[in-house]
Amino acid sequence: MVKYISSNSPQYFAFNVWSIPSAKAVMDAASQLKCDIILQTSMKAFQQLDIEEFHAYVKSYSQKKKINTYLHLDHCRTLDWIHTAIEYGWDSVMIDASDKPLDENIRLTNEVADLAARKGVLVEAEVGQIRGQEDEISSVEAGIARMEDIDRFVKNTRIDMLAAAIGTVHGQYKGVPNLHYQMISEINEITDIPFVIHGGSGLSDEILSRLLSYRNVKKINISTEVKLAYKCGIEESICKNGVEKSGFDPLVINSQIHTSIQNMTTNKLRLLGRTS
Ligand code: 13P
Asked: Where in 150-255 does DSSP place strands (E)?
């Protein structure tokens, strides 16, 4: 099977979604721009969704819209769930053993790589620790991956995508993001494995474009901004008096949420500067 991400594949944004409507809004933006896309499920979403129904919907809707949509399991810490995602047709999985000592991270990652390879599923893994918005700046810096660890990791694992902490955080940024851009080039010197940027929400278009200027950056993850667009859609529908004037109409709210997520997605995808 063809690897959808490789050293010579296009670059992608990967959007975290939690339901069929949120997936549809992202896919509508992608199809309008004739752009292939990655939909990610967090562990929480994966555990709550009817994954068989979700998978069937995503694949049939993207076929109808004539785009490729790849399903990715985000930040999974256990082999059991990775197994389930592979069994139900997810195209790629992330094993996140970044909180473990490096050797253990390598061992677990290879276990997943063996499992995934049998089904042609791609594997992402993480070195260093990408922190969250709740963490202090000093902790974000402490989580930055060491180049020697990255080197050892990529030489001893069989992964298709590498995530390494370079200063981005999950969630909203406190102050100005401090990204270690030179690490992306240094990583490219030691490996041609596609590099994944986590914590894409809250980065300006300039920063995202700069990240995309590195040819080894193949995937930028956006989660918080999808949720914020959802919230914004609700707020806008209330502001527009859709609720009060016409009585309570879930269709008005649903449509506003859809538009809000679709517009946010479109704005990100335009940064890819391609139409297919
Ligand atoms: P954000 O929530 O900051 O967009 O991060 C997304 C992400 O990296 C998911 O793995």
From this structure: 161-164, 195-197, 217-222
Ligand 1 pocket by Cβ (under 6 Å): 16, 74-75, 170-171, 198-201, 221-225
pTM above 0.85, yes or no: yes
Residue range 190-236, pLDDT digits in tens: 999 999 999 999 999 999 999 999 999 999 999 999 999 999 999 98
On the CB side of 253, CA atoms within 13 Å amount to: 13
Tell me the CA–centroid distance for residue 195 and ligand 1, in Å: 15
State how far the alpha carbon of 17 is from the alpha carbons of 194, 224, 265, in Å. Answer: 22, 10, 12
Q: Return the closest-CA partner of residue 102 out of 166, 66, 151, 40.
A: 151
CA of residue 45 to ligand 1 center, whole Å: 14
- Domains located in the chain, CATH noted: 12-224 (3.20.20.70)
φ, ψ at 161 (rounded to 5°): -145, 140
Q: Going by C-beta distance under 8 Å and a sequence separation of 6 or more, which residues neighbour residue 222? A: 13, 14, 15, 16, 200, 201, 268
